[in-house]
Design a protein that fits this description.
It is a single chain. By secondary structure, this protein is an alpha+beta fold. It has 2 domains: 81 residues, Phosphatidylinositol 3-kinase Catalytic Subunit, Chain A, domain 1 (Ubiquitin-like (UB roll), Roll), CATH 3.10.20; 85 residues, Roll (Ubiquitin-like (UB roll)). The chain is built from 4 helices and 10 strands.
Length: 218
């Protein structure tokens, strides 16, 4: 005889749904929190890296006009105190497991190069200053407003402009306001040119060099 009684399956005999995750697997999310500076925004998770960067940057006014190739994602790594930059190739794999990421604006390469050039220029200037004020120097006097200020400088290497730099450091008078005057024996006094070597315009050990002050607007 045919048995019409339906077969009852026990729960342990039923396969779990294909969409379920194991207990140790992180649950993928469709939204993610993005931080930049002190701001946080919750937004849709996009697994394509470059569109994700563009979408995330659009949420922050200070990033709106920044080149997207200078913006990257960073995230906290377990056991680490700092943030790690997320490689573009890994973004689709790790992004669904992250509750929060941080946007970072990378330095402008042109600005970095300009800063490096300025540092190199300062380094050369400092080396040059040591050369003209510490090696084979001779004492001279700068005469200004009736007062005399002693300086030691290398007369055969230093230019008038470099002497002005030393005066700026010693006396605090900006180069743009300085006017130095030179005088060769039996010659009238004349304004010194910045590129003149001191020894070539008659400056010798013990020379007194008049210093005039240029007034603004002159």
């Amino acid at each position: 005889m045919f048995d019409a009684t339906p077969e009852v399956q026990r729960s342990e005999d039923v396969d779990p749904p294909l969409t379920s995750l194991g207990p140790d697997q992180p649950v993928p999310v469709t939204v993610i929190v993005v931080r930049y500076g002190d701001e946080k925004v919750m937004m849709q998770l996009i697994l394509d890296y470059k569109p994700a960067i563009a979408y995330a940057a659009s949420a922050f006014n200070s990033l709106n006009k920044k080149p997207h190739d200078r913006i990257c994602f960073e995230a906290q790594i377990d056991g680490s105190k700092g943030l790690a930059r997320i490689d573009e190739r890994l973004w689709p794999l790790v992004a669904p497991t992250l509750p929060e990421v941080t946007l970072r604006l990378l330095p402008d390469p042109d600005a970095v190069l300009a800063s490096l050039a300025r540092r190199q220029k300062r380094t050369r200037a400092e080396a040059r200053l040591r050369l003209i004020t510490e090696i084979a120097t001779s004492p001279i006097l700068i005469v200004a407003a009736g007062d005399e200020y002693p300086l030691d400088i290398n007369l055969i290497s230093a230019t008038v402009l470099e002497l002005k730099r030393v005066i700026e450091r010693k006396l605090g008078l900006p180069i743009s306001q300085q006017q130095l005057y030179m005088q060769l024996p039996r010659e009238d006094i004349w304004p010194a040119e910045d590129n003149d070597i001191l020894a070539s315009v008659g400056v010798i050990r013990g020379s007194k060099i008049p210093l005039g002050i240029k007034r603004s607007g002159w």
